[in-house]
What does this fold into?
Amino acid sequence: MRWSQTLIPTMKETPEGAEIPSHVLMLRAGLVGQLMAGAYTYLPLGLRALRKAEQIVREEMDRAGAVELHMPALTPIQLWQKTGRVDAFGNVLIQFQVKRQNRQVHLALGPTHEEVVTDLVSRYVSSYRQLPLTLYQIQTKFRNEERPRFGVLRTSEFLMKDAYSFDTSLEGLNQSYDKMYQAYCRIFDRCGLDYLAVEAESGPIGGDASHEFMVLADNGEDTVVHCAGCGYAANLERADIGQRGETAPAAASDPLTRVDTPKAGSIEAVTKMLGCEPSAMIKTLIYSADEKPVAVLIRGDHEANEGKIRRALKASKVELAAPDTIQQVTGAPVGFAGPVGLKIPIWADSDVAAMASAVVGANAADAHFKGAVRGRDFEVGQFADLRNAGDGDPCPRCAAPLALRHAVEVGHVFKLGTKYSEALSARFLDEKEQLHPAIMGCYGIGVNRIIAALVETKHDDNGILWPMSLAPYEVLLAPLNVKEKEVMTLANQLYEELTHASVEVLMDDRDQRPGVKFKDGDLIGIPLRVVIGGRSLKDGQLEIKWRWRDAAETIPLEGAAVAIADLVQSERNLSHATSP
RNA sequence: CGGGGCGUGGCGCAGUCUGGCUAGCGCGUCUGGUUUGGGACCAGAAGGUCGCAGGUUCGAAUCCUGUCGCCCCGACCA
It folds into this structure.
C-alpha cells in the first residue's frame, strides 16, 4: 500500500480526553477514530491489525478442532426470557421493538450467544454420536455499557470470538476445556502478549471452573493476585488467602465503652474522630442472603468479598441489605451497625479472630463502642475467609506473600454445565437410550482487546511496538525524497518485488521531509523500516532498522528485496520471545 | 446512578472570573518559491452557528436557566 493512497490520519498532539497509552496511541497513530462514547471506527491501519488478531484466533480455534459458524446478532427476546437473562443482563442487554406488518417484534442485540447456540444445537443434535462438538464464531457483540471508558478497552460494541463446547460427560467437558485453554495460550503467545492465566469467578452464569487470560497493565480494570513463589494466580474476586493466625483474642481488660461519633458512619470518619487505626475496627456489614439478614464482620482495613460470603453461607444470592432492613435489624441507620447485641447470625472473616478488642458500631445512630471483646461482648457464629486478598497476604498454596496487579482481561474460559442445555432443551440420547442435557463450556476472546492490550503494554515514547504477527504492515518503505527520480524508481521497484514476495509493505510516498516520515513511522510502529536515499544510497546501500532496536544497519542494494523478505520471514517464524 | 472536569476552524489551546472594536495563537490544509536524514523556511490564502435552546442587556464566547455531548473517579459489569 502506498501511504498517499490510503487513510492514515496521524496526530502530532494527544487528543483531548485520551489518557491511557493505548487510547492515546491508537488515536494518534490513526488506528481508530471515535464516533461516540464507546464506539470507534477501525481505520485502515487499525482494521489490518484487528484482522490479523482475528486470523490468529481463527487458525488456533480450527487447529483445536472447533468449527466456525456465524449466528445473527439480532435475536428474539423470548430466547433470553427462557433463561432468565433478560433480568440478569438488565440494562446491558440492548432491546428494541420493530414493526412487522401488523405486529410488534421484540428483539435484542446479542451480548453473547449461549442462548442462540444452545437453541441451535437443540434443533440439530440429538445423539451422543454427534458429540462432542465445539462451535465458534467471530462476531460483533453489543452491550450497553453504563460507562464506556479507556478508549477501545471498554466499548458498547466489540469484536468477540465466542466458542461453545457440547459434551456428553464431565470428562468430555474437561477435555474440551483443556483444548480451548491450550489454544488460548497459543493465541496470546502468537500475539506477543505477556499474559497470565488466572483462576476466575465463574459468576452467576454458573459452572464450576473458570480461567481468565490477563495482560498485566497498570491501567487494567481488573485486579489479579499473583504469587511469585509458586505461580498461583487468581482474579482478586476469586483469590484465596493462605492460613492466617486464628489465635484466640488476648484477654483484654478494656471495658466496653460507648462513645459518641456524630455523623461518623464510615471507617474513615470514625478513625479520624477517635484517633484509631482502621485495623483496630470491625466493620459490621448486614447482608441479605437469600432474603435472610446476616451480619458479616470484617476488619476495618479489609474489603469484603461477596463471592466468598455467598459460598461460605451456601446462599444462591447475596447482596448488601437495603437501608430499611439494616435499620430494622440493628435499630440504627447505615454506618452504625455492630455485633454487640445483634440477633441475627454473625459470620466473621478469619482475621477478626485475632483481634483483641475493637471499635464497633453501637447499633445506635451516631455512636460506637470502644473495647468490644469477642467472647465477652459478642459472639461470632462462624469464621471463614470472607475478604479480598491484599498485597502481602500469604499465598494459599505456598504462604509466600501475594502481589496485587492490575490487568486487562483478554480471554475467559469456563465450564458452564447444563444451565443452558436444560433451559433450552439441548438434549441427546446416550447409548442406553437415556436422555441427557449436553454439558457445556464457553470460551470468549475480546479481539479488540488483543490490539488494545498490545498497544497498552508494547510501546515506547515514540509510538507503538508491533510484533510481526499483528503489525498492520511488516515493512515500511521510506524513500527520503520523492522528487528524486532515482530514489523513486528504486522505491517502486523494491515495493513491487517485496509485494510479490508476499511481504506486506507500506510505502511512505508522501512528499514530506525525512523527519516527518521517521516520526510517523515510529508512531505507527511498523517492525522493519527500509530507508532509500541520502548517505547510504550514495554508497549503494539501503538502511534498515527494526522498530524495537536503537541502531540501524545497511544492506547492499543488490539483492535487497530478497534479503528483506528473508529478514521478515525469519521474524515471522520467531515466537514473541525476541520481539518486544 | 453519585461526584468532578471540559465543549471556541480538522487537531491542540488562549480569551469567560471582571460583557464592549473585525474572536486570537500553534499545528495541519491550499497556492507560489526555497529546502530534503528525526515533526523545515519565506510570502500569500481558505476555513468559525464560540455544543444547542431560551433569557438578561444598548451590546453575550463571556452573565442566568435549561439541554445535549465528551472525559475522569466511584457504583454497576452475564
Remarks:
- The longest strand of chain A covers residues 403-417.
- Residues 328 and 466 of chain A are 59 Å apart (CA to CA).
- Residues 576-580 of chain A have pLDDT under 50 and may be disordered.
- DSSP finds 15 helices and 31 strands in chain A.
